[in-house]
Design goal:
Length: 69
């Protein structure tokens, strides 16, 4: 039996479905903005990529934890 995914990763399937790109695409975009603070990165995803707040926040939270930012 597989373990239920929780936290920011639980948003990944719906992010990929809604925006038509794998999460790695979005992480690549965040790579070029790694000097920004968490909420600045969220704002960027919302304004430049028309992402909803929850999806943007999930990507940024996971990305920053993975990169130890």
């Amino acid at each position: 039996m597989s373990e239920k995914i929780t936290g920011p990763q639980s948003y990944f399937p719906s992010i990929e479905k809604k925006y038509g790109k794998p999460v790695e695409h979005w992480f690549g975009i965040l790579d070029s903005h790694r000097d920004k603070a968490h909420m600045e990165m969220v704002a960027l995803m919302k304004s430049e990529h028309e992402m909803g707040h929850g999806h943007a926040n999930a990507l940024v939270a996971y990305y920053r934890k993975k990169k130890s930012l």
